[in-house]
Amino acid sequence: MSELPSLVNDLALILIVAGAVTLLFKKLKQPLVLGYIVAGFLVSPHMPYTMSVVDKANIQTWADIGVLFLLFSLGLDFSFKKILKMGMAPVIAALTIIFSMMMLGIVVGHAFGWGKMDCIFLGGMLAMSSTTIIYKAFDDLGLRQQRFAGLVMSVLILEDILAIVMMVMLSAIAGGSDPDGSQMLGSLWKIVFFLVLWFVVGIFFLPWFLRVTRKLMTNETLVIVSVGLCCLMAVVSTKVGFSSAFGAFVMGSILAETVEADKIIRLVEPIKNIFGAIFFVSVGMLVDPQILVKYAFPILILVLTIVLGQGVFGTMGFMLSGQPLKTSMKCGFSMAQVGEFAFIIASLGLSLGVIGDFLYPVVVAVSVITTFLTPYMIRAASPCYNLLERHLPRRWIRRLNHLGTAHDATPEETSKWKRLIMSMSVNVLIYSILSIAVIFMMLTFFLPFVRQLLPHWWANGVCGLLTVSLISPFLRSMIMKKNHSDEFRALWLESRLNRLPLLFTILARVVIASAFIFYICNYLTRFTNALMISIAVVAVVLMILSRSLKKRSIRLERIFVQNLRSRDIAAQVHGRKKPLYEGYLLDRDIHISDFDIPEDSEWGGKTLRQLEFRNRFGVHVSSILRGNRRINIPHGDEEIFPGDRIQVIGNDEQLRVFGDALKGEVVPEDSDIEKREMKLKKLKIRSQSRFIGKTLKESGIRDQYNCMVVGVEEGQENLTMIDPNRRFEEGDVIWVVGEQDSLQQLFLA
C-alpha cells in the first residue's frame, strides 16, 4: 500500500491536536481562537517535544483558503442597509478609535526603531479589536443584553468593514515605492468604484438567478454555487489588483441581501469552521519562543499600549459619537484587545514581504495576553468611572454624562437641502460608475471584435450607438431622479430663491451626462468639439423626452429595489425582523432584546400570566416568535414553549436578571434516565386477573399503570388493534408498552 501524502498526515495531526486543545479550552471557558493558536504552536517545528507538521507550504495554502471563507462569512453577516441605518454615531466612534490606535501603533513602532512598513502594519493590527472575543466575554459575563454591548457590536461591525478597506490600502502602500496622498486617494477611489459596481451588478442579477433556480437548488447545489461564486469573485478581485479576501467579502455582502442568505450562512458555517481553524493553527505555527523572549519588553509595551490606548481613545471615540462618560468607558474598555484581523493583516504583510518575521509572533503574543485581560478590563470600567467621579468636579461629570443629549436630532431638524444634495450625489456616483463600466467594456472588448467584422468607421458607429443605448437608462435616471421628490417640491414651493439653485442641480447633472456622450464621440470620431457637444446635448434631450426610455429606467430601478428588499420582506413575513421602534428605544434607558427559550426550561407550557414577568423582573414581552408565526402584544393566556424566541423590553439590569432566571430555571437532568426506556411485553389474561370483563378504559392500564396496549393477538402471527369497547376475556394475549417499573406493577395486578 502506498504512503499517504504529507498533506493528509499534516491535516490529521493538525485537526487531532486542535480538537483536543479546543476541548480543553472549552472546559476552561476560553476562546477557541486561543486554543487553535496553542495547537499550532504544539505542532510547529519550534516545539521539539511533539510531532510537527512536515510541509508548511501546503498548510499555508489551506490557511489562505481559511481567510477566504472567514471574510466570505463576514460578508454574509454584513448588510449595507444596516450600516446606513446606524447613523453617524458608530461611524464617528469607529473612525476615531481606528485612526488614534493606528497612529499610536506607528509611534510605538518608531520608538523601537522598527522599519517604516513594520510600523504601518503594526498600527493597522493594533487598531482592530476582536468581535469573537468580545462577544464571548459579554456572553460569559451576562452583559450581552445590555445597551452598551449593542453599541460596541455596532462599532465592531464597522471596524471589520474598515479592516477590509485597510487591507486594500496597505497592499497599495506596500506595492508603491514611496506612496503619496494622490496614490492613496487613487487607491480609495478604485475601492469605491469596484465596490459599488460589483454590489449594484450583483444585487441586480444574483437574486434573480437564485429565484429562477430555487426549485432546482438543493442544499448540496446551493453550497456549491455559493462557494463557486465566492471563489469566482476572489479571482476577479485578484485580476483587478485587489486581494482575494476582498473579493470574497464583496460576494458575501451581495449574497447577504438575498432571500437565501440565512440558508447559505448555515450551509457554509462548517466549511468556514474547518478552514478557519487551519488558518488560526497556522498562526500558532509561526510563534517562535526565542523571538518572544527576545522581544519580551516590546510585547509588554504593546500590551500596555492596547490597554491604555483603547481605554482612553475608545472612551473618547464613543463620547464623540454622543455617549455619556460612563457608557463610553464601558465601551472603550471592552475593546482593549487585538482581534483576528490582526493575524490576517500580518499574513498579508508576510505574503507581500514587507514586514519582518518577528512582527507576526509578537502580535500573536500581544493578542493572547490582551484576550485573557478582556474580562478584567470590562469589569474595571465601572470602578474607573467611580474613581473619576470622586476626583473630577461634579459639573464636569454631569456635562460628560449628558453629552449624548446634545447629539440627538430629529429628522425634522435635518436640512432638506442636505438630504436632497446627498441623495443626488449618491445617484450620480452610482450611475456614473455603471456608465463608466459599460463604456470600458464596450470600447475594450466589443470594439475590437466589431472591427474584425465591419469596416473601421462602420464598426465605430455601431459600437458608439450600442454604447449610448446601453448607458442611456443610467444617464436619464441620473438627470431626472429626485426631481419630483418631496424635498425638491418642498424647496421649490417654499421660496423663489430656491428655484435657481434647484435648476442648477438639474443643469449640473445634464452636463455630467453630456460629458459621457462627448467622451464616446471623442473616442470614436474626429468631429469638432462644437459638433460633439451639440450631439451630446441633443442625445441627452432625447433621453429626457423618451417615454420608452423612462419606462425602461423605472423598470430596471424597480427590479433592483425589489431584489435589495427581498430579504427584509421575507424576514417580516416570517416574523424574524425586529420592530421599527427598536431604534427609538436604544436612545433611552430601555431597549428591546431577544431571548431563546431553552428546551429544558421550566417556563415551557406556562402562560405569561403564570410566569408574571412584569411583577418578577419589571419587563414586558412585546412579541413571541414561533416558527413562521409572530405573536405581537401577547395576552396573559398566551403560553410559552421551548424553542420560542421572545422579544423583551426593559433596562440593562432588568434584562440581565431576566436572562439569569431564564438560564437558571431549567428542569434538572434525569439521573435515572436508563429507567425511562420503553419496553414491549406480552401479557396473558388469566382466570384470576382483575381485567376480565372490563373494557380498555375500565381496566386502567393507561391511566393507573401508565402503560399502553398496542394490540391483541389473533392466532399465532396476527396482531390487531384492540376495540375500545371490547371486554377482556380469559386467555386473551395483549401486547403492552411502558417503562420497566410501570410494566412490573401491571403484571403484578
Shape designation = globular
Largest sheet: 4 strands, antiparallel
Class inferred from helices and paired strands: alpha+beta
CATH class bucket of the largest domain? Mainly Alpha
Low-confidence spans: 405-414, 580-587
Q: Tally the structural domains.
A: 4
Strand order of the largest sheet: 1-4-2-3
**Percentage of β-strand residues:** 5-15%
Radius of gyration, taken over Cα atoms and rounded to an integer in Å: 33 Å
Count of beta strands: 8
In the CATH scheme, what's the topology name of the largest domain?
Na+/H+ antiporter like fold
Distance between the termini: 66 Å
CATH architecture of the largest domain: Up-down Bundle
Mean residue pLDDT: 81
Q: Helix segment count?
A: 30
Write the layout of secondary structure elements.
Layout: H1 6-27, H2 32-42, H3 56-76, H4 80-86, H5 88-111, H6 116-126, H7 131-140, H8 147-175, H9 181-212, H10 219-239, H11 244-255, H12 261-285, H13 289-294, H14 296-320, H15 325-334, H16 340-352, H17 359-391, H18 394-401, H19 416-451, H20 456-480, H21 486-494, H22 499-524, H23 529-545, H24 547-573, H25 582-585, E1 591-596, H26 608-611, H27 613-617, E2 620-626, E3 629-632, E4 645-650, H28 652-664, E5 678-684, H29 696-699, E6 708-714, E7 718-720, E8 733-739, H30 740-748
Antiparallel strand pairs: 1-4, 2-3, 2-4, 5-8, 6-7, 6-8
Helix pairs in contact: 1-2, 2-12, 3-11, 3-12, 5-6, 5-8, 5-14, 6-8, 6-16, 7-17, 8-9, 8-15, 8-16, 9-11, 9-19, 9-24, 10-11, 10-12, 14-15, 14-17, 15-17, 16-17, 19-20, 19-21, 19-22, 20-22, 20-24, 22-23
